[in-house]
C-alpha cells in the first residue's frame, strides 16, 4: 500500500519509528520489539538507515521485509544518499523492491566529516526523484524549527518544495517539544505553497540519557514546561519516566485537537513507552 492513501481516510495517521539494533548480528532483538509494537496497529512503521554514516548495513531492508511479510504492517524504509553513489542507491532500491517495500523516506543524511561525500546526490530531492521513478511512494523529512544549515526557516521551507516537485507525497517532522513552533511551521509552509500532509514527529523523553544525547543534539527548543519537568525529576528515574510519557501524551493530544494530519512516534525501540503513549492518545486517534 502506498502511504499517501492514508491521508484520505477519516482519522489521523498514527505511525511509529524504530532503528536497527546497533550491533550487527542482534537483529532478532528488534523482532521481539516489533511483536509488541504490532499490538498498537500503527498505520506504518518506519525503519531508520545508516546509523553513524554506515550505509553498507542492510538491516533496514531486512527489518522492513519482516514488518511487511511477517507482521502484515506497511514499512517505510529510510534511505540516505549523501555518501552513496548512484550505483549503490540503485542496488538498495533493488533490495527494497525484492523485500516488497513500497514506501521510502528519501533523505540526504548528515554530512559526516569522516565519511566522503559521493557527489551523485546533493539533496534529498535528487534521491526522491530516483525513488519515485523506480515506482515507490516517496516521503520526505522537514524541520519545524528549520534545518540547521539554513539561516532562516523561510529558506528551509522554500527548499522543501524541491522535494515535493520530485514527488514526495507527505512529510515527517524532526522531533520538537513546543507545539506552537509546529503550528507556526504549518502556517508558513501552507502560505509558501507546501501542500502535502505533514506528520508531527514526537519523541517521548523518559530518561536523562536521552536528554543528554538526543535532545541536545536535535537543537529543539525546550519550553519551560519541559525544562521544569527535567529539573524536577532529574534524580528520580521512575518519576521522570512517568512525567516524560505524560508530556508526550499531552503534546500529541494537543496536536490532534488542532487537526494534525498524523503523528509519528519516535519509539527509541521501547515498546513499553510506545504502549503507554498509545493508550493516552487512543481516543484522540479515534481508535
Ligand atoms: P535535504 O532535504 O537535502 O536538506 C538538507 C539541507 O539542504 C537543508 O538545509 C535544506 O534546506 C537544503 N536544501 C535542500 N534542497 C536544496 C536545494 N535544492 N538547494 C539548496 N539547498 C537545499 N538521517 C540518517 O542518517 N538516517 C535516517 O534514517 C534519518 N531519518 C530521519 C527521519 C526524519 C523524519 C528526519 C527529520 C531526519 C532524519 N535523518 C536521518 C536526518 C537527516 O538525514 C538530516 O537532518 C540531514 O541533515 C538532512 O536531511 P534531509 O533529507 O532533510 O536533506
UniProtKB/TrEMBL annotation:
Record's keyword terms, sorted: Amino-acid biosynthesis, FAD, Flavoprotein, Methionine biosynthesis, NAD, Oxidoreductase
A Pfam family hit: MTHFR
Pathway(s) served: Amino-acid biosynthesis; L-methionine biosynthesis via de novo pathway; One-carbon metabolism; tetrahydrofolate interconversion
Entry keyword NAD: yes
EC number: 1.5.1.54
Keyword match 4Fe-4S: no
UniProt GO MF annotations: FAD binding; methylenetetrahydrofolate reductase (NADH) activity
GO cellular component terms listed in the entry, alphabetical order: cytosol
Cofactor(s) of this protein: FAD
Catalysed reactions, as listed in the record: (6S)-5-methyl-5,6,7,8-tetrahydrofolate + NAD(+) = (6R)-5,10-methylene-5,6,7,8-tetrahydrofolate + NADH + H(+)
CDD domains with a match to the protein in the record: MTHFR
PANTHER family, alphabetized: METHYLENETETRAHYDROFOLATE REDUCTASE (PTHR45754), METHYLENETETRAHYDROFOLATE REDUCTASE (NADPH) (PTHR45754:SF3)
Family assignment from sequence similarity: Belongs to the methylenetetrahydrofolate reductase family.
Protein name, per record: Methylenetetrahydrofolate reductase
Source organism (scientific name): Candidatus Aphodoplasma excrementigallinarum
Gene responsible for this protein: metF
Amino acid at each position: 500500500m502506498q502511504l499517501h492513501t492514508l491521508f484520505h481516510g477519516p482519522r489521523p495517521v498514527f505511525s511509529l519509528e524504530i532503528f536497527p539494533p546497533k550491533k550487527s548480528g542482534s537483529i532478532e532483538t528488534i523482532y521481539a520489539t516489533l511483536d509488541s509494537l504490532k499490538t498498537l496497529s500503527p498505520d506504518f512503521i518506519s525503519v531508520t538507515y545508516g546509523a553513524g554514516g554506515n550505509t553498507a548495513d542492510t538491516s533496514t531492508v531486512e527489518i522492513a521485509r519482516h514488518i511487511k511479510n511477517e507482521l502484515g504492517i506497511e514499512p517505510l524504509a529510510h534511505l540516505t544518499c549523501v555518501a552513496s553513489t548512484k550505483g549503490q542507491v540503485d542496488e538498495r532500491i533493488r533490495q527494497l523492491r525484492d523485500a516488497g517495500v513500497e514506501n521510502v523516506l528519501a533523505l540526504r543524511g548528515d554530512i559526516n566529516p569522516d565519511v566522503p561525500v559521493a557527489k551523485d546526490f546533493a539533496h534529498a530531492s535528487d534521491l526522491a526523484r530516483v525513488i519515485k521513478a523506480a515506482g515507490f511512494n516517496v516521503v520526505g523529512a522537514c524541520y519545524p524549527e528549520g534545518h540547521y544549515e539554513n539561516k532562516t526557516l523561510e529558506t528551509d521551507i522554500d527548499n522543501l518544495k524541491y522535494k515535493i516537485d520530485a514527488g514526495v507525497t507527505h512529510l515527517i517532522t524532526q522531533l520538537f517539544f513546543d507545539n506552537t513552533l509546529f503550528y507556526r511551521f504549518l502556517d508558513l509552509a501552507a502560505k509558501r505553497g507546501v501542500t502535502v500532509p505533514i506528520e508531527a514527529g514526537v519523541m517521548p523523553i523518559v530518561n536523562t540519557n536521552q536528554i543528554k544525547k538526543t535532545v541536545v543534539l536535535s537543537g529543539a527548543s525546550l519550553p519551560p514546561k519541559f525544562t521544569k519537568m527535567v529539573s524536577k525529576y532529574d534524580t528520580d528515574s521512575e518519576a521522570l519516566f512517568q512525567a516524560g510519557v505524560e508530556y508526550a501524551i499531552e503534546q500529541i493530544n494537543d496536536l490532534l485537537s488542532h487537526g494534525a494530519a498524523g503523528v509519528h512516534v519516535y519509539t527509541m525501540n521501547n515498546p513499553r513507552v510506545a504502549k503507554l503513549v498509545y493508550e493516552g492518545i487512543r481516543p484522540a486517534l479515534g481508535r
